[in-house]
Amino acid sequence: MSTTTGSGRLTIGEVADKIFGPEVPFRLEAYDGSVGGRKDSSIVVRIDNERGLRYLVTAPGELGLARAYVQGDLTLKGADPGDPYDLLAVFLDKQLVQRPALSELPQILRSLGISSFRPPELPQEEAVPAWRRQVEGMRHSKRRDAEAIHHHYDVSNAFYEMVLGPSMTYTCACYPEDHSTLEEAQAHKYDLVARKLGLQPGMRLLDVGCGWGGMVRHAVKHYGVTALGVTLSQEQAAWAQQRIKEDGLDDRAEVRFTDYRDVTESGFDAVSSIGLTEHIGIKNYPAYFTFLHSRLRDGGRMLNHAITRPDNAGNGLKRGGFINRYVFPDGELAGVGTIVSTMQDNGFEIRHVEDLREHYARTTRAWCKNLSANWDACVREAGEGTARVWGLYMAGSSLNFERNNIQLHQVLGVKVGADGDAHYPLRHTFGV
Fold this sequence. Notes:
This is Cyclopropane-fatty-acyl-phospholipid synthase. The protein is α/β, with parallel strands linked by helices and 432 residues long.
């Protein structure tokens, strides 16, 4: 590949200036020795090899950047790989790409060379496109949902322990005070859910998408209930059952490795769904809420806790984007209005709605800091590519929650009896 200025060819740095403009807020260094962008910027992005350039050329935008970064072909000099928040903030603040003049395109294409347009192999951390995932079944079939959950959650329990902290809770925390720690905020979140559900000793709780069993254990320990949690992650279920046994709760707590649709028990007093709705698929919401409504007794409550869109148009996750390919294959987000409407249309009376958007921004910042503090151990445990994916994902999530590009809503519904009795107090009793 030619990267010299002879014969009218541009260096990589000069091509970058044509595409980004010379006032882009970073300095670009390339493996051909050229430089582009702001020469005096403290933020330095380096394309380390030809493969990195090919990722950028064959998938312009966030996916190409992610591929090059995850593979280590694009590096951020001076940036913390576990917490690239400051760098991503610069990228989100600016409209970086500008369209070169048509007269310049032939020179740009000639300078890059034909080999630059040959797609490299995909990083092993990237899920295959949705059309290729049809071999696992139709979108949101039990088999395909299981594969999607396996891709994200069955990384390594040890890795998650280092990133999430002792609570092993991979959902939005709720910070009771400005100075509260992550662990205090996660415990407070579980307690808030328990109070919204009106849990009392002797009640039965079903927790769908239970993760490592945090809600199950909290409810059994502190509210005296009997709880069943279900997850599609075999590693989560194994970890949770071991922890339940160690805590002496196995007479009243169980985490089962199964699809929530295979739960046969009914008559539960309460259902909690914390971070599962994102995996369900919007078209499946009616069946999802109908099924969970059928698991409850009359007067039973359901708390749905989910990442949401700031509007009710579309599914919120770009097909082929970074999140869809690296973090949540087949994931979909709806606005809270869609969730509320679907719950209402499938039997629930809505009693309370709350947005915890700012709390999730704090939660993901705390996870980034944990990843950064344990970077070397996380890389040894899960590989540098996975660790880089997590740094990008969590830092980017923090920014998007802060800027109201995504939200987090808890919606509380009640199964009202045929006589109209919701078994609900005249006013809320959960202290919010």
